[in-house]
Amino acid sequence: MKCKICGMNINEKNYDFNSFAFINKNSISNIVYCPFCGVSSIYLSGDDEVIEVDSKKLDINTLRILDHAVKLEIFNGEFYKEAAKKAKSEEVSKAFQALSKIEIFHSKVHMGLGGFTKTPALTKINYDKYDSDEALLKLAKEREEHAVYYYERYKNEVCDENVKRVFEALIEVEKEHIELTYEYNLI
Ligand SMILES: [Zn+2]
């Protein structure tokens, strides 16, 4: 089984990767999401179809939107990596670790769409003032809401239908991450 969005092959060795980042869990007989980029099963296919984009045909505005999307996902991925170190609850820490991997994966998806080869280096942020799991989860929720807002705002500005399809798939993933911050806040 292949993910049409990130192109990864899903098999018995990797189906449960990043499971702490999902509300519903994959089982080997029932794959409900891509364990790498998190998209739902409607984007998984038995044939080898992958959503592809010819980056040379993208206009400047779309490339700019994708460049910013790369940075947004790296920014969130790096936040989760730091948050995983700071979280006091082991469960919350595992969720942040998994979320970090997924967001970094999203940045790679956007790099592929835009034909970008150089991973941008962002300024490191100090998250010391977020000194409780509640504060980290609240910031996580805000970051995810911003990602949803970004994709919603720009999905109709991009010049390529397939870029739009990817944005729509990722909106659903980031919305589930918002839900997840509520779930973990109850622990
Ligand atoms: Zn995927």
Topology:
Layout: E1 2-3, E2 44-45, H1 60-86, H2 90-114, H3 133-154, H4 161-185
Antiparallel strand pairs: 1-2
Helix pairs in contact: 1-2, 1-3, 2-4, 3-4
The structure holds zinc ion (ZN).
Description:
GO terms for molecular function: metal ion binding; oxidoreductase activity. InterPro entries: Ferritin-like, Ferritin-like_SF, Rr_diiron-bd_dom. This is Metal-iron-binding protein. It holds the Pfam family Rubrerythrin. Residues 65-179 form the Rubrerythrin diiron-binding domain. Helix 2 (90-114) runs antiparallel to helix 4 (161-185) and helix 3 (133-154) runs antiparallel to helix 4 (161-185). This protein has helices spanning 60-86, 90-114, 133-154, 161-185, and strands at 2-3, 44-45. The protein is globular, with a radius of gyration of 16 Å. The protein has one domain: Ferritin, core subunit, four-helix bundle (Ferritin, Up-down Bundle). The protein is an all-alpha fold and 187 residues long. It contains four helices and two strands, in the order ββαααα. The chain has a two-stranded antiparallel ribbon. The model has no long low-confidence stretch (mean pLDDT 96). The longest helix is centred in the middle third of the chain and has 27 residues, at 60-86.
